[in-house]
Amino acid sequence: MQISLIELHQMDETRVWKATVELKREDWAQISQLQSLSPLQVEVKAEREEGLYRLTGKQTAEAVFDCSRCVERYTTTLTMRWSQLITDQAHRIEKDAETEVHLIQGAEVDVLPYIREALLLGLPLAPLCAEDCKGLCAKCGSNQNEQPCNCNVDRIDPRLQDLELLLKNDGESSS
Q1: Total Cβ atoms within 10 A of residue 103
Q2: Nearest to residue 129, comparing CAs of 150, 148, 143?
Q3: 0.90 exceeded by the pTM?
Q4: Least confident of 9-23, 29-43, 96-110
C-alpha cells in the first residue's frame, strides 16, 4: 500500500485511505499455528503535526489457527492498530529514545512494513479456540472438550515417588 507524499503535503487536516492488502505466505509463515489469513482490510489515517505526519492504521483479517491446547482448527477475527510518525525533512528527525520518526525518501510512503509488523505483533503467542479450552489428555490423547477421559494424569515429583509408595503401603497395612 502506497501513500503519495504529494497528497500528504496537500491535505488540510486529516486524510483517510482504505485498501485491501493481501500479504504473502512468507510474511507470516514462521507462525506455525496460523494456517490461513484472509486479505487485510486496512484503513490509514494521516494527520499533520508540525512538519511531521502521523499515520494511524487499523487493520482486520480473518485468521484460521490450530489451537495450542486441543489442536482443533478455528477461525477468528484479528484487529490490529498501529501508529507511525514520518517526515520527508531530515532536520525534523529528533534523536529521542521515546519518539521514533521515519525519514521518507522518494515520492511515496510504503506502509506495507507497518502493516506486516502490526500483524506479527498482534498474533497470539498461544492461540486458543476458547479461553476455557481443556486441551488433550496427556495419557490417551483424547480431546477433553469433546469427551473427558478417566485417565490418571496426576504428576508426582519423582523425588517424592518413593514417599508416595511408602504412604500407600502404610495405609494398606493399617487397614
Answers
A1: 11
A2: 143
A3: no
A4: 96-110
